[in-house]
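Project outcomes to date are best conveyed with an example. Our students and postdoctoral researchers have been running inverse folding experiments weekly, and each run begins with a structure described purely in tokens. The record below, which covers 334 residues, was selected by the lab manager from last quarter's runs and is presented without edits.
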């Protein structure tokens, strides 16, 4: 009786397990087929993208001299461009004896010109207007990347926003001879940065429109290590201290915002309706943004007898050394 019961249990297990196993096998096989199909589909798409992708002109230049025709050959057709080329700085590449013909003249930028010269086909020469901003800028940087001024351009805010070298510079038709600019500052900068243009017309402003300083005195258009592409002083402090040296310190008693948030915590750098480019019309309102009795403020609150409705509104009448002091921790004197 027990043996019969045991055989019944074995048979029941076989009846249940075998169909489940077969179903699982079929499911795994179907899943593998789907994955294989998806993989084949991706490979086919990648091959198609490789065929249709535009040619990149930023690869290393061919060094075979027979592929190059020289600048004089280019000038036979491009006579007007040849004249502006001779007046610009790039003619000096002809004096380069350390590299081959691939680094000299027109073909240093536009690549080997033999096929283009023989056929007249514009697709046989590098044309900057057909390249992406990333590609055209990389081609310029093959020569210009080694100086401190341009070394950060590939990670600059300008290039990340699809603004390349040829948007500001024109090799063949510059409006400003210095640096081959398309326009003079600040008009060139205003063409994109319209939001800051009104600031320089406010009663108190840095004299950019008057030509005393330029945008690039404070900002490096080719990128840098600071926010808003700001430059730094020789001591690697805020660029403001390049002109405002008396505020640079170091001081025995520092005013914390100067070192943490910088000058812009109190001043509007481009322009303001308030004297000294302050962000608030009343000095006490500016000070009270930090010096208020709140839980999360590290700055000390004002004393209880400083009634803001009376004479204590003018904070800097007493705290004259607001940028820092060498003798008083309350900034009463310098």
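After processing, the design step wrote out the following sequence:
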């Amino acid at each position: 009786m027990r043996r019969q019961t045991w055989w019944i249990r074995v048979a029941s297990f076989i009846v249940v397990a075998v169909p489940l196993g077969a179903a699982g096998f079929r499911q795994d096989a179907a899943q593998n087929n789907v994955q294989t199909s998806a993989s084949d589909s991706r490979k086919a798409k990648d091959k198609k993208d490789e065929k249709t992708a535009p040619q990149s002109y930023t690869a290393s230049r061919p060094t075979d001299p027979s592929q190059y025709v020289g600048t004089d050959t280019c000038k036979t057709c491009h006579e007007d461009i040849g004249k502006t080329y001779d007046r610009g700085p790039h003619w000096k590449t002809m004096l380069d004896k350390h590299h081959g013909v691939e680094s000299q003249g027109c073909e240093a930028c536009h690549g080997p010109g033999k096929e283009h010269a023989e056929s007249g086909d514009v697709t046989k020469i590098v044309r900057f207007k057909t390249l992406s901003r990333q590609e055209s800028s990389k081609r310029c940087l093959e020569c210009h990347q080694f100086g401190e001024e341009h070394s950060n351009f590939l990670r600059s805010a300008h290039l990340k926003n699809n603004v390349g070298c040829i948007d500001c510079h024109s090799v063949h038709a510059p409006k400003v001879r210095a640096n081959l600019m398309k326009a003079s500052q600040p008009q060139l900068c205003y063409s994109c940065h319209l939001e800051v243009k009104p600031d320089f017309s406010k009663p108190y402003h840095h004299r950019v429109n008057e030509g005393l300083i330029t945008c690039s005195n404070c900002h490096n258009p080719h990128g840098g290590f600071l926010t808003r592409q700001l430059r730094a002083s020789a001591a690697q402090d805020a660029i403001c201290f390049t002109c405002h040296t008396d505020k640079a310190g170091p001081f025995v008693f520092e005013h914390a915002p100067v070192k943490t948030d910088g000058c812009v915590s109190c001043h509007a750098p481009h322009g303001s309706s308030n004297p000294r480019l302050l962000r608030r019309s009343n000095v006490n309102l500016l000070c009270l943004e930090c010096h208020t009795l709140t839980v999360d403020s590290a700055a000390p609150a004002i004393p209880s007898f400083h009634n803001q409705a009376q004479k204590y509104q003018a904070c800097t009448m007493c705290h004259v050394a607001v940028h820092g002091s060498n003798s008083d921790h309350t900034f009463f004197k310098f």
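Strands lie at 204-205, 253-254, 271-272, 324-325. The first strand starts at residue 204 and ends at 205. The training component of this project remains on track.
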